[in-house]
Every structure is written in structure tokens, then in C-alpha cells.
Amino acid sequence: MTERVSIAIVVDDDPSFRRSAERLIRSAGFNVQTYPSAAEFLKSPRPDAPACVVLDVWMPGLSGLDLQRELGKAGIEIPIIFITGHGDIPMAVQAMKAGAFGFLTKPFRDQDLLDAIRQAIERDRVARKEQADLAELRGHYDLLTPREREVMALVVSGMLNKQIGADLGTTEKTIKLHRGHLMRKMQAQSLARLVQIAVQLGAPRPRA
């Protein structure tokens, strides 16, 4: 199975490692981008495709751990696989606690790196799909009127149309109309799906 739409990014100040890593990763069917420093990588836009970063811990200027912190501050979520020839357990723990996907100590097997890249990219692929789905749901929710949002919150709380009408000071018939409109706008074919959407959106809860 080809991975040509996926990108492995190698950030390492060792040119020989960058070259060998690029050859290895391309041989496995991934696209590759390489950078000699964390600063150079930070200047580049995030790829618009599932990706991961193979990141050296020790580099002049910004270290790999520094870059990890900078990405976190910028809200850039991309799986990071740390590599080092001088790794120790406390450093690995620090990196993993900060959200690193993996940590490999040189020398490592080629297959270990490829396996880590494949798994990291798959995680990013899933995360990107979830983000896209959530953005689509938010777009649908933005189409709702304020009253439709009120009705939606009460519907997913389990209230019947008649109860919602009494709560909002209107008729059951009017609530049915609002409910039909919001179901169509949210593209929910069932109450169960509407509840699921509300959970995904973290939609406002009904009034107490």
C-alpha cells in the first residue's frame, strides 16, 4: 500500500543522517521533507497531509525538546518521534510526558523507525479526519437559529416536544417545526445521531 500522500519530516543537524533517513523513508513509499535545524522547520508551513516529525533531540540552537514546546505553544499537533545518540530515561520521560509519539535511541533498526513513522502518520490521519468532521458539524450548527439551538439542547436532554413547548412558552406544533428544521440542518437522521452530534460539539446544555 503506497503512502505517497503522507509525509515524514526529518529534523536533524547531521547531513549524513538526513540523507540516509530520506533514502530509507522514501524506499518505504513515504514523501519526505528534511530540515537541518528546528528553526528552519519552524519557518515552514505544516504539510496539508497526514505527517509526523522525526526529530533529533540534540541540535545547535533550538533543541528537539525546545521545538516540541514551540509547536505546543503554537497549537500545532503533529506526532513527534524523537531520536538521539545520547538518550537517557529522564529525557525520554520528559519527551513522552510532553506528548511525543515515540523515542528511539541510536543505533536503531531501520524497521523500528519505519514502524514508528507508519504508526505516527496513521495517528495523524485519524486526528485530521476527526478535526475535519468536527469542523463540518460546527458549520452545520452555525446554521441553526438561536431558538433551534435551544430546542436541540432540550431534545438531546430527553424532553418530549410537549415538554419543550411548555418550557419555552410555545406550542408543541411549533416545537415539531423547529425540531424538523434543526434535524435537517444538522443532517441527523435519528435522535441517537443528534445526541451523538451534540456530544461531539460539546453543544450548550439546556437551562437548569
Note down, in words, how this protein is organized.
- The protein has a five-stranded parallel beta sheet with strand order 2-1-3-4-5, with helices on both faces.
- It folds into two domains: 3-131, Response regulator (Rossmann fold, 3-Layer(aba) Sandwich); 143-201, Winged helix-like DNA-binding domain superfamily/Winged helix DNA-binding domain (Arc Repressor Mutant, subunit A, Orthogonal Bundle).
- The mean pLDDT is 90.
- The chain is 55% helix and 14% strand.
- The longest helix has 33 residues, at 110-142.
- Helix 3 links the parallel strand 3 and strand 4 (80-84).
- The protein is of the alpha/beta class.
Identify the notable features of this structure and list them briefly:
5 strands, Rossmann fold, 208 residues, alpha/beta
- Average pLDDT, to the nearest integer? 90
> Architecture of the largest domain, CATH level 2?
3-Layer(aba) Sandwich
Kindly provide the radius of gyration, computed on alpha-carbon positions and rounded to a whole number of angstroms. 24 Å
Low-confidence stretches: none
Tally of DSSP helical segments: 9
Shape: elongated
Which class of the largest domain in CATH terms? Alpha Beta
Kindly report the spatial arrangement of strands forming the biggest sheet: 2-1-3-4-5
In short:
The chain is α/β, with parallel strands linked by helices. The protein has nine helices and five strands.
